[in-house]
Amino acid sequence: MKTFAVYGKGGIGKSTISSNIAACLSGDGLNTMLVGCDPKADTAINIVGRRIRPLLDIMKESRRPDPSLFIVKGYNGVSCVEIGGPEPGIGCAGRGLIIGIRHLIQEGLLKEYDVVIFDVPADIVCGGLAVVVKEGYAEVALIATSDEFMSLYAANNLCRGFKTLRVKVGGIVYNRGSPEGREYVKRLSERIGIPQLGEIPSSDVVKKSDRMNKTVIEAFPLSAEADAFRAIARRVLGSTACAIPNFITENEVGLLGNERA
């Protein structure tokens, strides 16, 4: 079984990346599960076409609910679970995440899958959100980033956390790519010692797919963007170049931006 978790700055497109990778790998014949770890419970929308009820909400009614109540199959047979979380301003999202994932593991619900993808919210500064890789639920982390300073700053900060936790990273996915920003991301990749797995261009195709509540793989299967997602998915699956990352200082991240200009 291959397990990995997608991290990155909030709003960078982790759910879009995760769902498209899941659609690609399931289309290649792999039994795939997508686990949404965000309290907003919005990871599976583009696979299922709608929101699904979070596991933590169902567990309030039954401590051992039937899997059919929270595992929903979507496009290409991808199995989706939304962990969910507390009401905004109440409780700890990380603690809820731990409860939900441990339930999946204790019930043996992940064992039947060839690939399990965890879509993790925001940065790693919260120890509860780091538990996905810290406890080994995911074997390797992937970092999603754009070429914007705050996104690259978050990516570098993730590497700092992963280095402290001794977590292996499989690569960087460059989202909303542009010719101007390509060298910036490339230089960061070289400095932290983590390969770039591929680039998803800034594109109306991706935006249109999201508005349709579909993956690019389903909505525009013949597009260049779909091909980019397929290439990334297959590199993720076949990659053996996972490593504990390095990191640079905040000033050095800023200097990379000045180099680009």
Number of strands: 8
Shape: globular
CATH class: Alpha Beta
* SS class: alpha/beta
* Total DSSP helices: 11
Unreliable parts: none
The share of residues in helices is 40-55%
Order of helices and strands: EHEHHEEHEHEHEHEHHHH
Distance between the termini: 43 Å
Average of the residue pLDDT scores: 90
Strand order of the largest sheet: 3-4-2-5-1-6-7-8
Supply the CATH architecture: 3-Layer(aba) Sandwich
Sequence-ordered SSE layout with sheet pairings:
Blueprint: E1 2-8, H1 14-27, E2 32-36, H2 45-48, H3 55-59, E3 72-73, E4 79-82, H4 93-106, E5 115-119, H5 127-134, E6 140-145, H6 149-165, E7 169-177, H7 182-192, E8 196-201, H8 204-211, H9 216-219, H10 224-238, H11 250-260
Parallel strand pairs: 1-5, 1-6, 2-4, 2-5, 6-7, 7-8
Antiparallel strand pairs: 3-4
Helix pairs in contact: 1-10, 4-5, 6-11, 7-11
Could you characterize the architecture of this molecule?
Helix 4 packs parallel to helix 5 (127-134). This protein has an eight-stranded mixed beta sheet with strand order 3-4-2-5-1-6-7-8, with helices on both faces. The chain has helices at 14-27, 45-48, 55-59, 93-106, 127-134, 149-165, 182-192, 204-211, 216-219, 224-238, 250-260, and strands at 2-8, 32-36, 72-73, 79-82, 115-119, 140-145, 169-177, 196-201. The protein is of the alpha/beta class and 261 residues long. It starts with a strand and ends with a helix. It has one domain: Rossmann fold (3-Layer(aba) Sandwich), CATH 3.40.50.300. The relative contact order is 0.18.
